Amino acid sequence: MGGLAALAREAGHKVTGCDVGVYPPMSDQLRALGIELIEGFGADQLTLAPDMFVVGNVVSRNHLPDGTPKFPLMEAILDAGMPYTSGPQWLAEHILQGRHVIAVAGTHGKTTTTAMVAWILECASLQPGFLVGGVPMNFDVSARLGGSQPFVIEADEYDTAFFDKRSKFVHYRPRTAVLNNLEFDHADIFDDLAAIERQFHHLLRTVPGAGPHGTGRVVVNALEESLARVLHMGCWSEVRSFGAAVSDFTATGDPQEFDVLYQGQIVGHVQWALTGVHNQLNALAAIAAAQHVGVSPETAARALGSFENVKRRMEIRGSVQRPGGSITVYDDFAHHPTAIRTTIDGLRRKVGPHQRILAVFEPRSNTMKLGTMKAQLPWSLQDADLAFCHGGGLDWDAREALASMDAKARVSDTMDELVAQVTAQAKAGDHILCMSNGGFGGVHLKLLQALQNK
Predict the structure, then answer these.
(1) In angstroms, rounded to a whole number, what is the distance separating the alpha carbons of residues 197 and 52?
(2) Domain 2-87: which topology?
């Protein structure tokens, strides 16, 4: 929604917005763009009388325990008969119409891969528009209109709004659709994996066909059985696969330096600062998507050499010097068990087997709050030397879920207790990896301050 606000502002509209507890980097970006940010969802905002209220999917018709509406502004909009629409619908009607949309979907890696595609097209002088669910460090903004046909958008499978329960991505009508991976997530709105697969197939139904007059392409991760089932439901477009041994796009070499092969022939070389096999797969997906708008794999691979990732993706927030080596604190958006595991694996490959990784995380996503994937947490944290969980406010017992990890795992109920636990265990040369899809109570700065004071 912050990126959407930025696009509306760039298009010349006067934009205001409201939310609760907005945190950096998005809060900083909005203020820098001159977008007024109002705290809370008070009905008094109706007096602003805008031409349109654009409603994000955080808004609901729910009520608080005392019976008052959780979103009084929404109730006031409905009572007054004011005009409103969803974010994806507004994008479809005002930004994406008539453009070559490249939509990046998947359980993991959407933000990073979307940023990669945008950067590749930028390096190829295509001046793309984009909307990324984070802030790409190559651009320092999460969205822009761009100056040409291609528009790259992060395509989320989460529902559109309380009044439109379709997945967001069905609004985007892509000409190039990237299916990066697919696992069960969003247990608050999907009953099972099959329900999500059905939504992904709805996305495929919107991509133009193949053949002499067709211009659509689907880029698919060939390692994913779930995506094979999605394609089996029906696919009308040109398909380019990546990742598996028998795919159109493959890679050979270490994830930090590898050759890119297209149908068995080396067509490019990537050498960059990113870590992990997951980012290598993201790169292949981005290269395959960029090829569809005329960027050669060689050019795309070269562009990725200067890709700087996205804020909150293995972002170093600071370090504290100690005799024998500094202690480094990282911030990462990982919140799904698979993402936690691959993020730790990427850091492990970077720092080697002899330096310690302290994984600090909070189960904050709706799926994790429900406890749907709590049994996978020990598996996801396996490669960390120590794990610290902020378990406050959960309806399930984090200590019980992590019991199999014995002394490797610690659970705290408050932020102060968490910081004290990590600070007590941290040693020279350690890497402290903080993972959450929220602000995590500013734990990064609190840790750095506590370590400095120790």
Answers:
(1) 33
(2) Rossmann fold (3.40.50)
